[in-house]
Amino acid sequence: MKRLWWLGWLWLMWGLGVAFADAPSGVVYYIQFKEIVHRASADYLIRALQEASARNAAAFVVLLDTPGGELQATRDIASALLNSPIPTAVFVYPSGARAGSAGVFITISAHVAAMAPGTNIGAATPVSGSGEDIGEDMRKKVVNDTVAFAKTIARQRGRNEEWVVKAVTEAASIPETDALKLKVIDLIATTPADLLNKMNGRKITLANGKTLTLRTKDAPFQEIPKTWRETLLMFIAHPNVFYFLFLLAFYGLIAELQNPGATFPGVIGLISLLLALYAMSVLPVNALGVALILVAFALFVADLFTPTHGALTFGAIVSFLIGSIILFQSDSPVMRVSLWLIGTMTVLTAGFFLFITYSGVRAQFRRKVSGQERLIGMIGRVRKRLDPEGLVFVDGTLWRAIAQDPPIEEGESVQVERVEGLTLYVRWAPSIGGASPVPAARQEDGNA
Predict the structure, then answer these.
(1) Of 293, 296, 257, 251, whose CA–CA distance to 269 is shortest?
(2) At 423, phi and psi to the nearest 5?
(3) Which of 111, 239, 261, 361 is 20 to 30 A from 104 in CA distance terms?
(4) What is the mean pLDDT of the chain?
(5) Tens digit of pLDDT for each residue in 44-86?
């Protein structure tokens, strides 16, 4: 009987150990997420979480500071955190950081949500890609869908559903003290080390229903850095950087077409184009915006060869401006090109093509500076008396010349009036500097 009692006791202890096991007392891995939320940054966070899980980490911490971003990428991150096989924590850090818009959903998706002093969270209202409010009908659909998404996360993590709904519908935003009071977050910590100490001993429930007690006090805190590919992609995937690369590609290619063999502009344009195409794979680019910018460049180029008196250039400027504004289709205002950058690039692009047009028009009225025609108007010196035929020295060369007002004596100056073959037709001209006196014969002609 006593033996059976001991077996029952051991069975009970084993069951409690399974139900309330301690988290692995190992390394706590973390990442610094100071990014706009988009496909590239989401892939980095999810990859790091998977790597931490594969290493059987004691916990995975996200040091968050984001203005928000794309909703679909946010859903992917939230899903990864909700279904994580290891404990997760999101820490809005350092002071001055924010969990704006998409950051709200990321923060409340973790097992432990924390904020540093001097931080804020909120303003998760969906907006259009241009940053304006969405139309009434579409707004209802998008807001209702986002509210349901937020409530699901808050309910699963035991957070304040009412405030989360306000963050979506009313763009509510609060500091860390109010977030703790309203049970939006679990704790306030000053540093990552303070966070690990305050997390220690907390019980969390994983997606598989298993309950763990966190053992994070004084645990090693190790970063999972970005790969070079992730670093590059996150840099060029910024809307402003993509926009600049996209335009630089066309500037380079147009310059190469205008100056075949220059090589450098073509190489820069090609590299910029490839990087821009790479960024397009992760950014919510609007095809209509891209098409309008391409049309603008086509109109700019066409105006160089068509006498439209600026009509095509005006149309190109309008097309370029509209295309730049609607270049991205996203529900977040951070996923758009800066209006300052749009204005600057519109002025520079219009100025660039207007300068080319002006240069072309001016060249039509400029005296030719190549071939024999460039000699017209030049001053030369008579080397053999012109009566009317003789020799003159012009532009470093001895020419056969015919005087329009013979005779012209040797040593006198002449001006070229026209060129026919290898013969110059010239007329007497005062000596350069006026040093030589006017011949008496010419004075008599003038008096007559």
Answers:
(1) 251
(2) -115, 135
(3) 239
(4) 83
(5) 999 999 999 999 999 999 999 999 888 889 999 999 999 999 9
Cα 19 → chain centroid: 49
Give the Å distances, CA to CA, from 217 to 25, 49, 84, 107: 9, 20, 21, 21
3-state DSSP assignment of residue 41: helix
**How far is Cα 349 from Cα 151, in angstroms, rounded to an integer?**
47
Give tens-digit pLDDT for 155-181: 999 999 999 999 999 889 999 999 999
Token pair belonging to 25: 């007392």
Q: Are 300 and 317 in contact (CB under 8 A)?
A: no
Q: Which domains, ranges and CATH numbers included, belong to the chain? A: 14-225 (3.90.226.10), 238-364 (no CATH), 372-437 (2.40.50.140)
**Is the whole-model pTM more than 0.70?**
no
Which tokens sit at 90?
């999101």
What are residue 175's DSSP bridge partners?
120
Number of Cβ atoms within 10 Å of the Cβ of 295:
16
Query: At which residue do the structure tokens 């439209």 appear?
Result: 308
